[in-house]
Amino acid sequence: MNLLWLQSGGCGGCTLSWLGSEHGSLFRELKDEGIELLWHPSVSEAGVDEARDLIEQCADGRIAVDVLCIEGSLLRGPRGTGGFHRFGGGAQPMIDWVRRIAARAQHVVAVGSCASWGGITAAGMNPTDACGLQYDGEASGGLLGPDFRDATGLPVINVAGCPPHPDWITETLAALAHGRLRAEHLDDYGRPRFFADQLVHHGCPRNEYYEFKASAAQHSDQGCLMEQLGCKGTQAHADCNQRLWNGEGSCLRGGYACISCTDPGFEEPGHPFTTTPKVAGIPIGLPADMPKAWFIALAALSKSATPARVRENAHADHLLRAPSVKRTKR
Amino acid sequence: MNTRRIVGPFNRVEGDLEITLDIADGRIAAAYVNSPLYRGFEQILQGKLPADALVLVPRICGICSVAQSAAAALALADSLSIEAPKNGRLAANLTLATENLADHLTHFYLFFMPDFARAEYESRRWHHGAAERFRATVGSAPNQVLPARARFMRMMGLLAGKWPHTLAVQPGGSTRPLQSSEVFRLHRTLREFREFLETVTFGARLEEVAAIDSRAALDAWRGKGGGDLRAFLAIAEDLDLWHLGRGTDRFMSYGCYREEDRRLFPAGVWHGAAAPLDIAAIGEDITHAWYAAAGLPQHPASGSTLPVAEKEGAYSWCKAPRLAGQVVETGALARQVVAGHPLARDMIEGYGASVAARVVARLLELALVLPAMERWLGQVVPGEPWCIAAPVTDETSGVGLIEAARGSLGHWITVRRGRIHNYQIIAPTTWNFSPRDAAGQPGALEQALAGLPAGASEPLPAAIHHVVRSFDPCMVCTVH
To answer: Which stretches does DSSP call E strand in B261-361?
Structure first.
């Protein structure tokens, strides 16, 4: 299976995340899975004329592309011209290249939240009229339109995340290479379910603080980040605390909020990123599938049941009290 | 005869790059560097809450992500008149140093060295070895370096949660307190990386490399062992990379890695002699960039970013920053020249800045900074504070200056009624790859390319690739 990777309105961070794969050399990993890189802007030898020729051949069908990976948002501005990103040593806008190659490729993969939905580049006034391949924020559409299907009937595969975990990218590509990715393996937003059917909350080491609503009041506190500091881990679709980052990390393990970066529209949450929005003291964003009344009842109950150890440790940056040691009488 | 040739897309640079060459008599008469991608972060940031900048700015760049965070955190801290506690400062140094060293490694092995595997060099005696070792994606070096780099990036897992794009770097310090067993694990990761550098990259102790104090000493050292730096030095001598790619020979560094009462690398300017850095003398010229004309060059504290689709004489989305009207070069070489490292100063004696000097300075920093990281880690005191709360101020302004791997990065923020009124960023490659200014002065790369041999249609000579990549450009930062 061959793969062409192009970058547009993004930061290149998806590629940098991918290169940090922790299963030996990424290049060997791809080879083992039978994936051949036709061209990737950051790592391939071919450049300038040679690269442009190759991409032209992909666009006019002389080279059959199995997988087209796009990293970065698609920039439609100014005024629909695509002029905010011209590519290939010439005047042609990148969105034209993407349309032409996507129409011929066997599969199209959006790598990261920019290519999936527009992402950070679409934040604020969205100066470049940025969108994703098949979504514009939460709305189906984007550059290729809601009806786009690849040669096998699949929509654009959205390996969302800002950035995505290296394994999300590699395992999606491996599934395609082995013919094992079908429509039922994608969720409602076209994200591979192997990571998107999990919640960031699953495996969070702050779970005891969460259970008792023993909340961090400020950065570097050990308590739960949901009540005050904007954490959306209980709603965010990703397996970040089961499949760790850079060895033993994750956002929550790093002491800061999950901003739900795998979701469309995460770049404009409608509240300060690291402050939890509330109505009458109750967080607006409740844990996934949790009825509000039960959340309020359980929170009140668990707060009153919080052990002193948990309450004190939640407001400290190191352990003040250790769990008591149970002694068995002889 | 004069021919115009547009070359692009340049690859193995971070982001998009295209260069227009005017070729006369087989040489480049003039080069015009175009950054063809605009995203508009300075517009996106307007009207946001100041603290939200910490989510947005790292996403300017996937390779300078922490540098962008650090510059924003410093600008916010400056605007709020707060200072991180000692542990927070040490964590900020360690996080930035991890990114900068990983970037140096990535540049050397993944971006720069693969050019020596090109067929153009087949007749050179070193080509077979270089191709086996450095060829893109299949060479032994990239496949050995990626796992070592990933092991080193475990620093980020513990210090910052993840890389790229962390929120751990805050104006008040770090969100990630370290416990003593974690400090132990970080030490172990540094030891592993030191061992990799000493066996694979240098074939020598880091301290031995850091002590090389002249070109002559470097030449003598080259004969005494193996390692990839020595392989590069042999190629550099054969291709005379010491006399290729001279820029302006004005060097600038904002300085970085704050220690008790100084910075590990100080701020300053060098043009044949040391001079203090005058931040007030920075102005951004947009004569040849696609932005609405502002008349005179603007200081970033009062700068503006208003893109226009068409403009007479414009050829890039990159503005043209100047220091007191002069073009300056920034990067690892500039940083070490300003800091007064004897090898860096000696490398620019005679010819001036060159492809070889820029590459050697980058690797020299690996040898200089890793021991400093070991020292900083030893100074961390678990149990003492990591972060202080940042107050909220409705009317204020601040500046954050930092050194990313590829040079000087500055953020200027103005807050009005509690919202970001203006946010201006000048990135390292904005300096190095700037277009011409109102006076017609070409940017640093444009100057470095002028005069190089090039033809109208035959494949672009590898020398041009070497010069472009010797600056370690980051194009996504350049325009942002």
So the answer is: 263-265, 268-270, 274-275, 282-285, 320-323
Q: What is the CATH number of domain A2-196?
A: 3.40.50.700
Name the helix (H) or strand (E) containing B414.
strand B407-416
Contacts with A, B 88-147, CB within 8 Å: 106, 110-111, 114-115, 117-118, 135-138, 142-144, 146-147
What span, in angstroms and rounded, lies between the C-alpha atoms of B111 and B116? 11
Domain A199-317 of CATH type 4.10.480.10 = yes
Tell me if B44 and A125 make a contact (CB, 8 A cut-off): yes
A133-182 pLDDT, tens digit per residue, is 999 999 999 999 999 999 999 999 999 999 999 999 999 999 999 999 99
- Compute the nearest-CA separation of A51 from chain B (Å): 7
Q: Which of chain B's residues have a Cβ under 8 Å away from the Cβ of A170? A: none
Test A88 with B9 for CB contact under 8 angstroms: yes
| Domains parsed from chain B with CATH numbers | 2-479 (1.10.645.10)
Whether the full predicted model's pTM is greater than 0.90, yes or no, is yes
A-B Cβ pairs (cutoff 8 Å, strict): 269
Is A273 close to B40, i.e. CB distance below 8 A?
A: no
Distance from C-alpha of A251 to C-alpha of B167, rounded to nearest angstrom: 8
pLDDT tens for residues A305-321? Answer: 999 999 999 999 999 99
pLDDT over 70 at B294, yes or no = no
Does A247 sit within 8 Å of B307, measured CB to CB?
Answer: no
Residue type, B33: V
Closest partner residue to B44 among A127, A218, A250, by Cβ? A127
pLDDT in tens, B462-480: 999 999 999 999 999 999 9
CA atoms in the 13 A half-sphere facing the CB of A39: 21
Residue B422 at interface with chain A, using a CB cutoff of 8 Å: no
The rounded mean pLDDT for chain B is 97
pLDDT value of residue A296: 92
Write out chain A residues lying below 8 Å of B114, CB-based.
45
Give A253 to chain B, closest Cα distance, Å: 6
The domain ranges of chain A are 2-196, 199-317
Res A89 pLDDT > 90: no
All residues of chain B having their beta carbon less than 8 Å from the beta carbon of residue A7 are 15-16
Query: What confidence score (pLDDT) does residue A237 get?
Result: 98
Nearest to A127 among B40, B61, B162 (CB): B40
Q: How far is A95 from chain B (nearest CA, A)?
A: 12
**What would the pLDDT profile of B372-390 be if each residue is shown by its tens digit?**
999 999 999 999 999 999 9
> Which strand (E) or helix (H) includes residue A172?
helix A166-177
Residue A257 CB-density burial (10 A; 0-12 exposed, 13-18 middle, 19+ buried)? buried
Non-local (6+) Cβ contacts of A330 within 8 A are none
